[in-house]
Structure to design on (402 residues):
DNA sequence: GCCTTCGCTGACACAGCGTGTCAACACTGC
DNA sequence: GCAGTGTTGACACGCTGTGTCAGCGAAGGC
């Protein structure tokens, strides 16, 4: 059973609508603010009813957040793909680098900065963002533990991943606060330099 | 201008109602689950209208979460109160210990465990919990930076606090998952042992 | 004593979110 | 052409959180 390369025209169409809907939503939310924008407004701007909006995104938060869910998976994939001989510090640094790149090295950096600022500046979205990160943490911990051949209840992999994510948060916040003027990769290196002594190489 | 030791009968009364309301709410939420319990139910159980409930707590989440907001302040106070000669690792360990003690060393540990499990097991509450922690992180970072005489934009205090909170989360999760059978203070020591090399003493 | 004032309360009404349901429509493959 | 599948809008519903208003009781001034 091979998954078709072209995932059935219907699904492509759905993806297309889904993407454009998010585009419109993000633009509107960034302009008016999260709380000042209703789902009805977004739906109307996209030329559809509120009910249809919810067929693409379960909630207003999801339009913004789901973007980052994909990144979480990419980070986990990257960590799993790093050479197994690589020390955890380096592997984690690279994995976090993927997330940082997604934010700052985006094809439209200005828009991405706006989205990040929207998330960090909106309590509801910030909370969801952290929650998503907690999920990612669980997955990453499993991957790292497997890499190191440690039992899944060992404290080290969990703490190592939590430290790496702490670095990510610190970097993201400072990058957003500087309006993108600070170099995210340099910030990440600096943060990991602090963590290095505890990450064992 | 001295703040009265007895904060005006009206305020005491308000505090009393507030406490009992939370008691009833927590009991109901823990029994039925967060999503299966409406604010109307809680209010009815406390013998008041939904409108009055919201005069004491801004939202259903707040009944549960506000409890922890106070703990956040206590942790910050503890960190500020630690002798300034104390190395950051020890000061942070003690500060986090206050939060751990509040959860596990509570007068009614069974109830507290139920609340913690409720929070960690309910996505909405977990998200709010993390959000609250992010606020606390900002405050703690300021205190630690001041302690160390470092500029407020130095990376070290921020990362140190984030690491300490990462330890707190890891401990809390494992303690809750073990149904309180694991010793929280030992867990905390173990987590801080991992962090120690990066916390500079 | 009465009366004013303040805080608390319940009873509405309202906007917003998210969901279930149903009929209408389009587009696929037989 | 026709049945089957998927998408859409319309409507109704329950739940949350807030504004508003009138009623009620306790505290304090005259």
């Amino acid at each position: 059973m091979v998954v078709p390369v072209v995932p059935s025209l219907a699904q492509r169409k759905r993806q297309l609508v889904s993407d454009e809907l998010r585009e419109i939503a993000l633009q509107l939310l960034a302009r008016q603010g999260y709380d000042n924008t209703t789902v009805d407004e977004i739906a109307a701007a996209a030329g559809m009813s509120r009910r249809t909006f919810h067929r693409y995104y379960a909630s207003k938060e999801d339009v913004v957040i789901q973007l980052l869910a994909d990144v979480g998976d990419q980070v986990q994939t990257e960590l799993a793909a790093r050479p197994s001989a690589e020390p955890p510090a380096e592997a984690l640094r690279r994995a976090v680098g993927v997330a940082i790149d997604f934010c700052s090295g985006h094809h439209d950096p200005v828009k991405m900065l706006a989205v990040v600022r929207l998330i960090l500046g909106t309590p509801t979205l910030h909370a969801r963002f952290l929650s998503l990160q907690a999920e990612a943490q669980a997955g990453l911990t499993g991957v790292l533990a497997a890499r190191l051949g440690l039992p899944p209840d060992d404290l080290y992999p969990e703490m190592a991943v939590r430290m790496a994510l702490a670095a990510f948060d610190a970097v993201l916040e400072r990058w957003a606060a500087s309006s993108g003027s600070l170099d995210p990769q340099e910030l990440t290196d600096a943060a990991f330099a602090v963590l290095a002594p505890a990450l064992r190489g």
Observations:
- Residues 32 and 158 of chain A are 39 Å apart (CA to CA).
- Chain A touches chain B through 27 residues (CB under 8 Å).
- Residues 9-10, 38-40, 50-51, 54, 58-60 of chain A lie near DNA strand C (CB under 10 Å from a C1').
- Chain A has a mean pLDDT of 93.
